[in-house]
Amino acid sequence: MIRGDRIFGSVVIVIALGYILSARGIETSFMSDPVGPRVFPYMIAAVMIVCSLVMVLRPDPEADWPAGPMLVQLAIAFGVLVAYAYAITPLGFIVPTAFASGVLCWQIGGKPVRAAITGMGLGIGLWVLFRLILGLGLRGLPAGWGF
């Protein structure tokens, strides 16, 4: 893992530097806020570089990789997250979020009924937060269903 951490850290540093170079091309208007469209990517890249330098200079010792049932659990979680990304546009925010968070809650040891209730609560609660409180243009349900 030591060599892997160093390689990964080096690759992320290169990506962060590319991120900085692309952010240099962003034009700012005279009325932008202090953390405008150019400063924010710089801040993200700086955090990426600091974290990557830690990985390069102080890598973790060799780690045990998961095997057997844990790999199946990871594959299920990965599949749920990929399906979530594809389902959120046609189905809106609430249904895919409720399903994905319910499945992930169940995977980490929750009981099925509680996981389903948690999923529904997260789907609706996050939609209320993003749409009604923060004012984001987020469609809650599929097109034509009213929200």
Automatic annotation (TrEMBL):
Gene source species: Paracoccus onchidii
Keywords associated with the record: Membrane, Transmembrane, Transmembrane helix
Domain of life: Bacteria
Residue intervals passing through the bilayer: 7-27, 39-57, 116-138
UniProt keyword rRNA-binding, yes or no: no
Database matches in InterPro entries: DUF1468
Protein name: Tripartite tricarboxylate transporter TctB family protein
Residue ranges of every copy of the DUF1468 domain listed in the record: 7-137
Keyword Acetylation tagged: no
